[in-house]
């Protein structure tokens, strides 16, 4: 009996991780309803497991749970969108500076492999996957900086940024431009903290400028279609 709650928790994490990835890759759009029955059918789990998974996503502000209506993928407002990027602009440049001072050759190799995957996804038109990989690149920099508390905040902000981009991007370069990540890696490989900090500032400003905060949210697709195996 003791293993059953642990098993449910593990399944809830798996479902939550799958939904999170689908949100980050824009296979599930902002505003889409996440019906407990439909999610349970897609993943073959109970409503109890689904509720736990949705609560995890609500904690990360990727999902909103409305009484008597259910769970929906979050739709950040224009104000929230600006706040997300303002917070990133406060945290990430200094984190990039710190990371550059701690970067090892192994870290550089990891980052280069990472952007190779990102470039491949872009070249093949897999924009959603490229966006997810781009966010993970920023998390790798936070990891290298060895600032666990700040890295946790950055993780939440990068996650929210995926929703902001899904709602408000106006051109394909809302994905992190390849040259920006390449330049950051070069600065980190040279352990040039000030340059890494300046590059990150400019990169986030470019990303924000690629968004059109006047755009209306796109209509959501069906959940079954969004989560269908590729």
What this model shows, in words?
The structure is a single chain. The protein has ten helices and two strands; from the N terminus they run αααββααααααα. It starts with a helix and ends with a helix. It has 230 residues and is mainly alpha-helical. The chain has two domains: 72 residues, Arc Repressor Mutant, subunit A (Orthogonal Bundle); 132 residues, GntR ligand-binding domain-like (Four Helix Bundle (Hemerythrin (Met), subunit A), Up-down Bundle), CATH 1.20.120. It is globular. The chain has a two-stranded antiparallel ribbon with strand order 1-2. 69% of the residues lie in helices and 3% in strands.
Give a quick precis of the structure.
This protein has 230 residues and is mainly α. The protein is built from ten helices and two strands, in the order H-H-H-E-E-H-H-H-H-H-H-H.
